[in-house]
Amino acid sequence: MSTEITPFRIEIPQQQLDDLRNRLDNARWPAPLPGDGWDTGVPTTWLRELVDYWRTGYDWRAAEAQLNAYPQFTTEIDGQRIHFLHVRSPESNALPLLMTHGWPGSVVEFLDVIEPLTDPRAHGGDPRDAFHLVIPSLPGFGFSGPVSEVGWTSAKIGDTWAELMRRLGYERYGTQGGDIGAAVSPEVARSAPKNVIGVHTNGGPDPIATHQLSQDELASLTDLERDRIDRIQAFLREEIGYIAIQSTRPQTVAYGLVDSPIGQLSWIMDKFREWTYPRNMDPDKIIDRDRLLTNVMLYWLNGTAGSAAFVGYAQRAGWGTSKSNSGVPTAAIVFAQDVGIRRYCETQHTMTRWVDVDRGGHFAALEEPVLLLNDIREFFRDLR
Hints:
The chain is an alpha/beta fold. It is built from 16 helices and nine strands. A nine-stranded mixed sheet has the order 1-2-3-5-4-6-7-8-9, sandwiched between helices. Helix 5 packs across helix 6 (180-191). The longest helix is centred in the middle third of the chain and has 16 residues, at 223-238.
């Protein structure tokens, strides 16, 4: 097995961009459903306007240049190509930090926090809080896709990330992530407990409380915890459809998403609308539409809708299963649109920091980058 680390640069052929433009120009649109609101899916009127901007205003080459401004590499681990950004701090005593995105995200999620985390001195921060950043694309996602083997559970990805950090020569480091990244980050600590000094998550590390609560347990909840339980139950009733199809028939849904850029866009925008804060606001009013489109482009250009679904949500069977506690100090910052509950996370994590925030949503680095990076700094300050 080769352990070589190869420099990587994004260079999308113009033919692919021309093909995208042609597909957008000649799209076949469904008629709006009655009311044309978000309750039945992404509204046609809203999506048409966003697609028009994608056709005439969005600049992939600018986004490509922004991504290429950061050093990128690939390596092969267990037969899988792994793409990652590796951004070293100018501070010699910086702490390595491994950051993992989720679904339907990508490495694009972290663009607003890379420079403040690696070079706090240049951004009004304390240089003693500096990090060297390693930001991989999950197996099957973006430039780490597609996958050719089964078994890419959060535990296996955790082992893979530990091997990646070993190859980079990092013997002492932290981990951070949200969504799938919040499940993977503790797994790195379970894989390499002597190397990981701390685990930071946004949204809380798994698990979420999906079991049926007794009356006594319900009565013991705080108002905040009860609200989160209610929203978990609403999610399981009203939003579970995308997980059901992605975890059981990822290849079937992939045909439509890989062939239709508008299908891919709408599939992802549905989740950005549901999981950003406040929920009743269009996602492009919360997150810059260029950033939203760049994230979608990593799925579209690589044709990874199916493999991302396969890796991300074929793991549903693991929900609620008990895991060992690595003993590594673990932190969570839980924004308003997330549902982490400390008492349940403490059953298998050594929770040493928990911060509840009354604003912000699931995509923390995109929605509330300052709050997120400050919490990361504070948590690791005492662990360096």
